[in-house]
Amino acid sequence: MAERVVAEAVGITELIDLTGKRAFVTGGGQGIGMAIARRLVEAGAVVIIGDLDPAAQAAAAAIGAGFAACDITEPDQLDAALDVVTSAGGLDIVVNNAGIFPTTGPMIDVTDAFIHRMLDVNVRAQFSVAREAARRMQHGGSIVNLASIAGLGGGANISAYSASKAAVISLTRSFANELGPRGIRVNAIAPGIIDTPGVQDQLAPLQAGGVDITQRIAANPLGIAGQSDHVARVALFLVSELAEFVTGHTLIVDGGATA
Ligand SMILES: NC(=O)c1ccc[n+]([C@@H]2O[C@H](COP(=O)([O-])OP(=O)(O)OC[C@H]3O[C@@H](n4cnc5c(N)ncnc54)[C@H](O)[C@@H]3O)[C@@H](O)[C@H]2O)c1
Question: I want to staple 164 with a disulfide (CB 3.0 to 4.6 A). Which of 4, 77, 84, 122 is the partner?
Fold first, then answer.
């Protein structure tokens, strides 16, 4: 909680005013997406959370955001959700956050169905979100894609996930080149391990096996457990005018884990 106090002391909302901006956050029902949506609301934006989990509706209401039930892999649902946002007058900010990270495991055991699902959500659907958003955005728009430090390199037992996030980093650069002339910036965030419900689910078997997962989450040079709000503050910077000359960039938010 100490890090929240630091952010409040620097007066983020005095630096960044998103009043009048309309934002769409995929997978904003919990975790990183929820924290980003909360910061966008705090900065004055009208925020719609798109999530496949119906429980996200109450979570969205609790932070003052709207909700559009939406599985980003289903084009009709994605279209309908974006229509909800644009009906508020337009679309300025998209946080392309929804993603999955089931344990990949040894590459010799990975099935085609697993690879297909991983790439379908994390690459194909994220691509669709960016494309449909770009079609609706005006000059001054901003897209932030959620990549991962896993996408910066490789590693044992993470091959499919790592490849999907490497693709996100690559798409971010290509989209920035294509959309820059239209005044739309596209950046990515590569978080290290962040304590979210999704990560807690994934680490539960380790915890049951006696591994100290708190220590695992804080395994970085700063020794701080990564929190969703660490990522949210960086997302807020990237979508704001403070970053008006920044596009095609992948910003690492990992407490120095990859330093
Ligand atoms: N938590 C981490 O350590 C970490 C690290 C690096 C990158 N990331 C990336 O950040 C993003 C968010 O991670 P998180 O830990 O907050 O996840 P999470 O699992 O805690 O939450 C993900 C949210 O996305 C929603 N979602 C999943 N698939 C969806 C779909 N097809 N359509 C719409 N909504 C969908 C879920 O319902 C959930 O509300 C992901 O892209 C993830 O890969 C997370």
Answer: 122
